[in-house]
Design goal:
By secondary structure, the protein is of the alpha+beta class. It has 15 helices and 53 strands. A seven-stranded parallel β-sheet has the order 7-6-5-4-1-9-8, with helices on both faces. A five-stranded antiparallel β-sheet has the order 18-21-26-23-24, with no helix packed on it. It has a five-stranded mixed β-sheet with strand order 29-49-48-47-46. The chain is globular.
């Protein structure tokens, strides 16, 4: 049951942001009674020959959307102020700029380079796109085509709507460029208009409105004139992509019957989308237009196209750096096509027509993938499978394409089908793959794959069929990381009222089981457990419930018993909370989980967004060093003074350690100390530059090599101090740029000769001078190409609000080919997360959730002398008795890479080395912390003799202020303790929960 949490006015604004607006279906406006009432007849004519007209579109599957206009010159800023809202094409609205002022400022900036449309066409062709759609007129009312309408030629508001440079028509240039490269060309046309005096006054920019009565018939004639110019003057068009209808204004409000008739008369082969009418999924057009979301089961019975963006904005934004990489786009394309849709992917050129470099890089990467795998995209139809745990599928007559995102660790790809096949091979790879039919409880096909994927984005297995596919009955299997995710669309619903509810509009569409109004209703989920997936699973549900309806009792019926629970209030039907409802043991085979309500004390039972079952990981051996005082060294303690948030570095002599920390919780004068014997003893506090007294945030120390050291101090602006003589002398703190952040820099990675990448996070308050908390956490990356002397403007590599990921710690694979970021989850909803880069931090994959034994705050990692990986942090795992304490985990790179699936590559040589050197996974308490929160921010160094020196702060005695402590230990000591512990506990294997 959906209850909107937005006030009515805000809800209208929220739903209209972007390229479209979604509302509820209604009849055409009564005020348009004079409009010819032949909409139904016109739509029937379009339907009659749809298959013939759609044939090329169904073959193409991939197109380019281009948002370009006066707004491109603003780039999401106005009068020096950055507007962080998504959709920079709405800058006139965000900044509340009157149309005449907007035109005066923007028209001189719109200066397309000669030949820019050729570069777009080359980029689209290189990416494997088959058609392109350009914004001929967006909401601001300005026209990229040279209209001959009197209002477009000259008017008293902006002077005229035509904005092509003198002697040029950039719309014609676009159409000619695309056709010359063999691509089809179409035009977007906004029915909304913020400047025409007779346009409908809907979602207008936030400046005072004119009291003048509007003559909507004049505006309808204006729209028709424009559309006829596009149809008559720009050659054969593949589509007219209308935008913007709502409940009150659709169909006849736009003169739809005349527009449809004009298009059929002038270009009978043209396609038209469905936005002359309200609703992104309505069927009153050739194809539906879900925006920035992929319908979970496609849109059966209709053609559809997802329009999506490469960053968050459609129009050019100078500050939106949340770029999708090639892997993300490839997987998005595969997902859309596997569900029977097309992908119309947007670029937002700047005012000169230049496409931002990250967008070009992403598209060229997609093009490289398409040159190998395009046969799995072009001309294919939707997957015969409801859902696959490792990726998705497409098909053609006699051929099935398996798009593998998550490479199976054991090399066995399980395909839920009974049909026979003739052959199997990987696209782009020589030789055939072996396969077997498995006839168990759930018949399947097993295809044996190479050890590693041939493409990290998506490797495609091509099956030549010997008959039909014959999918086995739909079941949901756990993914390779032992997580089984159940979605609303996976359920079979029985009983009254219960339904899958779609909530949200552009980009934020989500689904839940809702309208649970009767206890007779149930939701059943089919699941399958493989032989290697049996075990104990923790069951979580993401639920929403109005407080007034809290208290319903429910049960989840499972093969090993029923899990009963009571539904809590979460603050609203669309305010969700994650709760663990119990644990269940699942054996191999097919099962059904059934969710049922026993009581309903309020208006409804519950809304359910997801059910997740997590195979409980086998515990690392637990070791406790808390009482081993011989290895503990006090670094600094001062009665009544808070000392915390320490950072350390090991100097190039491999025995001297520097430690820096503030006097205060995060902020305060920075203290510097030195140990010349590997942490055995520590110097008095060393003299520091005067500006170090003014530090506002946790300092972080890094050794850049060759005696070059750097110390960062964050918040706005981030500052740095440097030493060129191994810490003997230091510079003052000085800003490194016009940006700020929290715990800066959390981690630094070497990315080549003289090149570094530094990482930090912010929640909106400190990145800019006038920042405000927005409930969104962003992880940023800043690069240096000159040994850390200067740092570039940061780019966002992740942003989100569902989880708050922060404080990135860096660890590299043993061969240096992959960089990982270990991230704290500050909302305490999920485990800690990890992100991977395999191209020296140019692009990132993830974030992915880590196992519970790595869940904590401010991870610091190093490798021991025997190749094992050691990570230290403050433990924050749920239900963990050491929660809040200072801990370390010992394992291997392969453990953290495989814990999240095949998202980080490791060579066969390094994998063998890791297997040979890893004696076991240990979870070690280094020291009991008496204050749950005042611990962490550790330093971790490995000395040449194998001694590990971990340094942190904590409340080591009840009632005291936090102080600085280091613990010295070796893995040989841990191995001996672990062997003893294993002998004692061998009879009872233990597990760890989330």
């Amino acid at each position: 049951m959906h209850r909107s949490s937005y006030p009515s006015g805000m809800k209208r604004l929220y739903h209209c942001v972007g390229v479209c607006l979604v509302a509820l279906y209604s009849l055409a406006m009564p005020s348009m009674a004079a409009e010819p009432r032949d909409e139904a007849g016109q739509l029937a004519r379009w339907s009659a020959d749809r298959d013939q007209r759609m044939s090329w579109w169904r073959e193409a599957r991939f197109g380019m959307f281009i948002h370009w206009g006066l707004y491109s010159g603003a780039g999401g800023t106005w009068d020096g102020k950055v507007y962080p809202q998504h959709y920079a094409e709405w800058i006139q609205h965000w900044a509340a700029v009157p149309c005449d002022q907007y035109a005066r400022a923007m028209k001189p900036l719109f200066a397309p380079d000669p030949g820019v449309t050729d570069s777009w066409a080359d980029l689209a062709k290189d990416a494997g796109m088959r058609y392109a759609v350009l914004t001929s007129k967006h909401h601001d009312g300005f026209t990229l085509f040279n209209s001959a309408h009197a209002y477009s030629l000259a008017n008293p508001i902006p002077g005229g709507t035509n904005i092509s440079p003198a002697g040029r028509d950039v719309a014609r240039e676009f159409a000619d460029s695309m056709r010359s490269r063999g691509l089809r060309a179409g035009f977007y046309y906004s029915l909304l208009d913020w400047q025409h005096p007779d346009a409908y006054e809907m979602a207008l920019p936030a400046y005072p409105k004119s009291p003048r009565t509007r003559d909507h018939a004049e505006y309808i004639a204006y729209v028709r004139h424009h559309v006829n110019e596009l149809l008559s003057n720009y050659g054969p068009l593949c589509t007219i992509w209308f935008d913007y209808s709502d409940k009150q204004r659709q169909g006849a409000a736009w003169g739809a019957s005349n527009l449809l008739a004009d298009m059929r008369a002038k270009q009978p082969s043209i396609l038209v989308n469905n936005r002359l009418f309200e609703g992104l999924e309505n069927k009153n057009g050739d194809y539906g237009t879900p925006e920035k979301y992929v319908p979970p089961t496609g849109l059966p019975g209709m053609d559809w196209e997802v329009n999506h963006t490469l960053n968050e904005s459609y129009g050019y934004s100078s500050h939106d750096t949340l770029w999708k990489d090639s892997t993300t786009v490839v997987r998005l394309l595969c997902d859309v096509v596997s569900k029977g849709g097309n992908l119309l992917l947007n670029i937002g050129p700047d005012a000169h027509g230049r496409v931002p470099a990250p967008a070009q890089a992403a598209l060229r990467g997609v093009g490289a993938w398409m040159r190998v795998n395009s046969e799995a995209i072009y001309g294919t139809t939707s997957s015969p499978f409801v859902r696959l745990p490792w990726g998705c599928a497409t098909q053609k007559p006699g051929v099935l394409y398996l798009m593998v995102f998550d490479w199976p660790a054991d090399g066995r790809l399980i395909v839920p089908m009974k049909g026979a096949i003739k052959s199997a091979r990987l696209l782009g790879h020589d030789g055939e793959l072996s396969f077997d039919r498995k006839m168990g409880e759930v018949p399947c096909l097993e295809v044996r794959l190479p050890e590693h994927a041939i493409d990290p984005a998506c490797s495609v297995v091509k099956l030549e069929l010997d008959g039909d596919v014959l999918p086995t009955p739909f079941v949901v299997f756990p993914k390779g990381n032992g997580v089984l995710s159940l979605r609303p669309h996976d359920a079979t619903l029985n009983g009254p009222s219960l339904r899958v509810e779609q909530v949200g509009a552009v980009g934020d569409v989500q689904y839940n089981l809702g309208y649970w109004l009767d206890t007779a209703a149930t939701a059943s989920f089919p699941i399958g457990i493989g032989a290697d997936q049996q075990g104990e699973y923790a069951v979580e549900m993401e639920i929403g419930c109005a407080d007034a309806s809290a208290g319903a009792t429910m049960t989840l019926k499972t093969p090993s018993g029923d899990l009963g629970f009571t539904v809590p209030g979460t603050g609203g039907w669309q305010q969700y909370r994650l709760m663990e409802v119990g644990r269940v043991t699942l054996l191999p085979g097919s099962h059904v989980l059934t969710l049922a309500a026993l009581t309903k004390p309020g208006e409804a039972v519950v809304n359910v967004r997801s059910i997740t079952l997590r195979l409980r990981e086998r515990k690392p051996v637990r070791l406790d060093l808390d009482a081993d005082v011989a290895g503990q060294v006090v670094v600094d303690r001062e009665a009544g003074v808070y000392l915390g948030h320490v950072s350390t570095i090991l100097l190039d002599d491999r025995k001297t350690i520097l430690a820096a920390y503030p006097k205060g919780h995060g902020k305060g004068p920075i203290v510097l100390k030195r140990s010349e014997d590997g942490g055995g003893t520590w110097s008095p506090r060393l003299p520091t530059p005067a500006s170090w007294e003014t530090s506002k945030e946790t300092p972080t120390l890094f050794n850049l090599g060759g005696g070059s050291l750097i110390l960062f101090s964050g918040l706005y602006p981030i500052r740095a101090a440097r030493s060129g003589d191994s810490g003997a002398t230091w510079s003052e703190l000085s800003p490194i740029g016009e940006f700020g952040g929290i715990v800066a820099m959390g981690g630094v990675a070497r990315c080549g000769e003289g090149k570094f990448a530094a990482f930090f996070h912010d929640d909106g308050r400190y990145f800019r001078a006038d920042g405000k908390a927005a409930g969104v956490f962003t992880v940023y990356q800043s690069n240096s190409d000159d040994e850390g002397a200067t740092w570039k403007t940061p780019r966002a590599i992740w942003s989100g609000s569902e989880v708050h990921l922060c404080e990135p710690g860096v660890v590299a694979s043993p061969d240096g080919g992959t960089i990982a970021l270990l991230l704290r989850e500050n909302r305490r909803r999920k485990n800690s997360h990890i992100m991977f880069s395999t191209d020296q931090s140019a692009t990132w994959r993830g974030p992915f959730e880590l196992p519970s034994f790595l869940t904590g705050d401010r991870h610091t990692a190093t490798y021991s002398t025997d190749g094992r990986l050691v990570i230290t942090f403050r433990c924050m795992a749920k239900d963990e008795p050491w929660r809040g304490d200072w801990v370390a985990w010992v394992g291997g790179w392969d453990d953290i890479a495989r814990a999240t699936g095949p998202d980080a590559k490791i060579s066969e040589r390094e994998s063998a080395k890791a297997a040979a050197t890893t004696r076991g996974n240990y979870f070690v308490r280094l020291k009991n912390n008496f204050g749950e929160w005042d611990c962490g921010y550790p330093g971790l160094e490995c000395l040449p003799d194998g001694t590990l020196v971990a340094t942190t702060y904590g409340t080591w005695e009840a009632g005291e202020k936090p102080s600085i402590l280091c613990v010295r230990f070796t893995l040989a000591e841990l191995d001996a303790k672990a062997a003893k512990a294993v002998r004692q506990e061998r009879a009872e294997p233990s597990f760890i929960g989330r």
